[in-house]
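Lab notebook page, bench 4
Experiment: in silico fold of construct C2
Operator: M.H.
Input chain length: 392 residues
Purpose: comparison with the prior construct
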Amino acid sequence: MAGTRTKTDGPPRPTAARLSGRRRKEIVAVLLFSGGPIFESSIPLSVFGIDRQDAGVPRYRLLACGGEEGPLRTTGGLELSAPHGLEAISRAGTVVVPAWRSITSPPPEDALDTLRRAHEEGARIVGLNTGAFVLAAAGLLDGRPATTHWMYAPTLAKRYPSVHVDPRELFVDDGDVLTSAGTAAGIDLCLHIVRTDHGNEAAGALARRLVVPPRRSGGQERYLDRSLPEEIGADPLAEVVAWALEHLHEQFDIETMAARAHMSRRTFNRRFRELTGTAPVQWLVTQRVLQAQRLLETSDYSVDEIASRCGFRSPVALRGHFRRQLGSSPAAYRAAYRARRPSDGGTLHTSPGPSPAPDDDEWPAPPSRPSAPLLPSNRDPASTSVDQGAGA
């Protein structure tokens, strides 16, 4: 399914270690830290911590574990009191790390040691959103595919080059290590875990209780920001990248970009990867698809015209890349977009000529965080109080 990646999608990995004597498959430990967002923390607490056996969902035993001493204050100002510490994780068959508080802050070493030990003893390790940074810091993502919130995917790829970061996926299941994209994608991954453990019927029943779809098609691409990564702004390659964005309506390739940078293709590829964590050919395909997405939303151009205005050699090429990245055809995307768009009396662009590049003020550039969607090179471009809590 587009937007998700499971162990069967890639090369086989070594079989996970069997659970040690104390660990039980039905026990899920959620590792909580101060400074984390309340939403991501609440997802595993709700999915695994509420008894829904009346709905046909087998019960898990949840352990809310504090990764630090004292009250755990969330970003919304609420304080959580975890009834367990790190030692309780030794009983868990699954350990979930919700979003980490800051991608610039190193996780506590004792927590990392606990995660490594859990993995060695056969536990399934799960990182939601920026929880992937904690798993990566523990070395659990080395040589593996993984995802995180699209905003932070370039940073994860640069900081941990041995991790095969794929910002297109809603979640990645690599067997004993799983990661999800941002925010609501954590629900998708937790439902997937229930489906893996207990089947489609149980996962569907849980999804109905949560009032969410049991499976979502597509990936993160529809939510991606079109702005450039901060890191490239002061580099000589910035001029070439800016030129490429202004000329997406033209058919040019990486050799053209390399020549404008006065580099060989090999050197250009290497420098581009160092700056962005992705290959230039995949970045270029993504930008063309994003431009096509914008024109589908704001114009009456036919799909054939949009293909030409976005530099695709044919409508077939546009349709193929669009479906791979966004999980639908261009026509279906336009129909769905217009069906949910409120009538605002605005006019659609129908004038001839290439679509203009966005003005500078149209590029959102929030400070101190990476914001560009980048595709990785490994993909083809073409029992606690929570147990008793009320809940759905």
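Observations: Residues 343-391 have pLDDT under 50 and may be disordered. The two ends are 28 Å apart (CA to CA).
Next step: discuss at group meeting.
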